[in-house]
Amino acid sequence: MNFETENDPEILRQAALLLERENQKLAKKIIELTRELLTLKGGDPEQLKLRIAELERQIASKNRMLFGEKSERRASDEESAPPAPPTPPKPPQKGHGPKAQPSLPIEEVPHVLDEADRVCSACGEMLDVWEGQFEQSEEVDVVPRRFVLKLHKRQKYRCRCGGCVETAPGPLKLFEGARYSIDFAIEVASEKYHDHAPLERQVRKMRREGLVVESQTLWDQIERLARLLAPGHEALVQYQLAQGVLGVDETRWPLLGKSEPSRWYAWSMVSTNAVAYRILDGRSTEEARKMLGGYKGVVMCDAYAVYKSLAKTEGFTLAHCWAHVRREFIEAEVSFPAEAKVVLDLIRGLYAVEAKCKPAPDGDEERLALRQAESKVLVERIRAFAETTNVVPKSRLDGAIQYMVGIWSGLTRFLSDPRITLDNNHTERAERGVVVGRKNHYGSRSRRGTEVAALFYSFIESAKLCGIDPKAYLRTATVAALRGERIPLPHEVAASPSGAS
Questions:
Q1: Where would one find coiled-coil regions in this protein (predicted)?
Q2: Residue 15 predicted with pLDDT over 80
């Protein structure tokens, strides 16, 4: 069975049940063999119990990761949070009330009485219109999307002298003789890379709405659009490489072939107002160099060894993510609740310090002062814990401490640089679109498909980060490209007086 491409829920459910049963058998066998091995080695009985207990907890933890719900929220976080101040009781309310819709256009729909109903029930005289008096109510309605076949008639003009003929200009086209409009191409791209609808699904939806079209035609539109916008994507990548701090991460992206899908990776670079993607055929140092080659700033990342290796040759500085450390100790908390709680509480204290500051860059000066005065003390306490705590070798707690110590210099770099955030969560959030898209259309079918996907995900996620409508931005960029102008980047459009809405 190919789990990468199988989409039948019942088949996947049966496969998961089989894997779970097999996993339980193997787990029991591992525990039995470990017990026999330690007994043969003549280990201390108490140490033997600790090792077996730790192994059982590790297996239980892995089972939860595979078959349970994932969450980083801890019950102790809610229990230890300070109680909220009492609020005065509110009067009982029926229902949830109407939700405000400030972005919807308002369309007034008048309602009048029929002529036969405009008769007074008391005297029989005709009723007069009461000027300015209405009973009003709101109703959210839907206007169905529709496709039209526009017949453009470009008027011709001539001079009586016979020496000049002029024709009115037509609409902008993606290419000479294009049958589909630029708005159609933008609609298809937005549906696929913003709303994650595969092209075949779009074909079925369009057919229900009256348009008969093939998926190849839709691909042709977005491929030509991507070709037009390619200089803007490259400019966005270069803009990111000029930033002082970048969040970097990578997530797998299948490239579907004739047999097994290959494991490509979507590499992301995230700054405060932009996201840039490249989809490359691996996650080695060579691919990382294609993404970060020439960068000299600060890279916020996880502990993946490729970044450390590349930093030595490229000359950028590494900063590491406290959220990843926190996750390690959450895993260890199952087996070592008291010890893990010490570190988790101190990490929560680091975030509490950050919450006191204004957002960057206005709060940078205050942030640096608070980090030196308060965060530094908390970091020293975490370090002391790591140096003085006795742990069972190769246990989950030992692994969490070793992970933290191994990236300590990157974890503490935020103390002296207010631009560096505590974690890389903003980069992981920017990857949600890629991950959802991967699940919906299973990656790309060609190398060119990966290039097109990287371009549109970069523009769409950047537009979302800047608070502008991705579809409106794509139109602004497309029109600029067709006119031979420089393609504005999303943060530039957001900063302009008109913006994109």
A1: none
A2: no
Query: Domain-by-domain residue ranges, the chain?
Result: 222-318+428-495, 322-423
- Tell me the residue length of the chain: 501
463 secondary structure, DSSP code: H
More confident residue, 247 or 140: 247
CA dist 171 and 479 (Å) reads 11
Please list the residues that pair with 431 across neighbouring strands. none
- Tell me the pLDDT of the chain averaged across its residues: 87
The 10s digit of each residue's pLDDT in 294-315 is: 999 999 999 999 999 999 999 9
Structure tokens at 307: 């970044």
- Distance between CA 367 and CA 230 in Å, rounded? 39
pLDDT of residue 124: 87
Q: Which amino acid is present at 105?
A: P
Which of the following CATH numbers is that of domain 222-318+428-495: 3.30.1450, 3.30.420, 1.10.1660, 3.10.450?
A: 3.30.420
Pairwise CA distance, residues 269 & 364, whole Å: 22
* Pair type for strands 156-158 and 262-270: unpaired
Sign of the Cα torsion 259, 221, 7, 62 reads positive
Listed in sequence order, the residues at least 6 apart from 145 whose beta carbon sits closer than 8 Å to its beta carbon are 209
CA neighbours within 13 Å on the CB side: how many for 134? Answer: 9
Model confidence at 482: pLDDT above 90: yes
pLDDT for res 234: 97
